[in-house]
Amino acid sequence: MYGSEAIYESEAIYESKASRKPRRRRFDDDAPAPRRREPDLSTLDERLGIDPDGPPEGDRWSTWDGAEHGPDPRPDWVVTEHAAVDTELGVIKTGKEADVHLVERAVPGTGRRSLMAAKRYRSPEHRMFHRDAGYLEGRRVRRSRETRAMANRTAFGREILAGRWASAEFAALSRLWADGVAVPYPVQCSGTELLLEFLGSDDGTAAPRLAQLRPGRDELCDLWHQLVDALLGMARHGLTHGDLSAYNLLVHDGRLVLIDLPQVVDVVGNPQGPEYLARDVRRIGEWFTARGLPGEVGTPDALLAELRAEAGMPGGGGVSQE
pTM value? Predict the structure, then answer.
């Protein structure tokens, strides 16, 4: 019996091996077996390409939280709700150092909305202020590494400069607006982006620059008086614009407003402050004089003397001829 069982078992093993199909040897150049293609379900996703954490409408959630805010009391039109969203509406102005965009901040489901000008300083690889060394005199940082980086214009230094231009403009606007000087209200500052009061109509049309206007005699005289008041307001704080011209003044509903103040100069702390002040007065004075400002209403020399006195600077000297 033992022998019969052994024979039977060996025959079963042989039949089992014989029933197996020989495996085909696979070579490297054999084409891979086709795989079954899974159905693409992404076309059924109605939110494809949409940030799941983004707002239901608009381009981004409001950046109010976490930003540096403007002075109190805030105007009623400033939207501070955390549920607000920001929507990009286009470009207002492009420049060498910064671009200005039109942004709407609104609370969905309500009528709460406001238009703002978003001034965004260019990234470090772009050109920053030309001949800016003079403006930076009197501005110092505590860390010597940052001072060297800014002086050498390294990528790190240019990034610091961009942030410092933004923060300097925000600080100047906050200081001047709180004192009643005619400047846009600074809503907030975050990194290299400033959100400012939009000066224009509700449909997004920006107020014209002074350079675009051809005012009559009465309007010209009124604009001059407004300019004198604004510059005296800056002089009270020991400041001058630093790059004042008819292109850096807006006229909104008859009101003259100073804009673009990142290079604002301390006329006392900056060794070149008196020269910047004289240059500002000369440039804007030439524009008014060329359009027929009567001498009895005002002259650049008289304005410069008044500003020097207001800033507590020694008198003497006319406007710069640079």
Answer: 0.76
